[in-house]
Amino acid sequence: MNLLENIREAFRSIQSNLLRTILTALIVSIGIMSLVGILTAIDAMKASLNATFASLGANSFDIEAKGYSNKFRRGGMRGHIYPAISYLQAMQYKQQLGDEGRVGISAFIAGAVKVKAGSKETNPNTNVTAGDENYLLNQSYNLSAGRAFSQLELDNGSNVVLIGGEIREKLFGNVGDAAAVGKYVYLLGRRFLVVGVLERSGSGMGGGGGADRLVLMPLSTGNQMPRKQALTYDIKTSVLRPENLPFAMDQARGLMRAVRHDRLGQEDSFEMESSDSLASKLDSLSGTMRVGGFIVGFITLLGASIALMNIMMVSVTERTREIGIRKALGATAVQIRQQFLIEAIVICVLGGALGILLGVSMGNAVSLLVGEGAFLVPWVWMMLGLAICVTVGLGSGYYPASKAAGLDPIESLRYE
């Protein structure tokens, strides 16, 4: 029997034991689905997060005081090592950097805030931030209705705000974003005029609601708000060309050290982070997740291979008389072993093909639940899945095939 005839014989055997073959293939497909699905989900989520970083701008970096973080805060202050960045320091940095970059200054005012309009109010999950004229551009926030703050409002600290789409929906219903412009809202003991509504941005990283649960007021207005402790300011700097980012960061570090009066030899009293550094951290995290996903998939495949070996042993026992007839007709031990190995590989490949299809679908579905992103076809993991199928077929089928090849033809013919 040549290789082609062994493949045909494998399919004939599969057809004669269709139910058992389907169940065996399903066991393999579940193992491959878990492996390919987990790896696909990790890659799809990584692609989605990389797109988010790209939208935030690969040509920007943030400066904040060490020990403070205004991002995704739920209220309260963390312990600090160095003093917070003051308004004067932030403005000095902005003025001294000049035209080398577009500097946006913001301050976290309060978290877990309720916003009211008439008889309606939001849940206590609103973040209130104060920002300057560059805040929207640097954060890649767009307006769906209304306008940005005027220079007069920024200079005079007017009681005007931009609100997120979720806040607009809670307070004004499904009347459209434009209907909220010109209305008044109440928060933190003051009345504010809504001059614009931010486009929806989804939950965002960190679960803070992104722009959807954000109330933005002019920076000078935020400075006037009553508070128990001094504000800390975050600085976001964007450069026109991404290739200039390393030079701009070095220049900004020198300016900020001078503004903060960091002594020679002392470490920076502030932290600088670019979207590139976030992407490198994401690469490291996704690599660790891949290892974990591969281990989980491998354990599942190990169980599938044991089940396949057991079923192949049953198949050898049931076909003992057939093996004796083949040997009596001149089939060698190598040909018998090859026949059963090919049968195991064919079953694994059939199950693996189904598992890869389900795994790719499952991985992309999980990614869509976490965030938005394009459909990902992981060719590397698909090829790896097929290679693993062949390996599992060889590993699970070798012992049963060797047992079949070692049967005595006379004893086999007597088997009932």
Automatic annotation (TrEMBL):
UniProt entry tagged with the keyword DNA repair: no
Chief location category: membrane
GO cellular component, one term: plasma membrane
Molecular functions per Gene Ontology: transmembrane transporter activity
Membrane topology field: Multi-pass membrane protein
Pfam families in the cross-refs: FtsX, MacB_PCD
Transmembrane region(s): 21-42, 291-316, 340-359, 379-399
Domain spans labelled ABC3 transporter permease C-terminal: 295-409
UniProt keywords, alphabetically: Cell membrane, Membrane, Transmembrane, Transmembrane helix
Protein location: Cell membrane
Domain named MacB-like periplasmic core: residues: 21-223
Source organism superkingdom: Bacteria
Family note: Belongs to the ABC-4 integral membrane protein family.
Name this protein carries in UniProt: FtsX-like permease family protein
Species lineage: Bacteria, Pseudomonadati, Bacteroidota, Cytophagia, Cytophagales
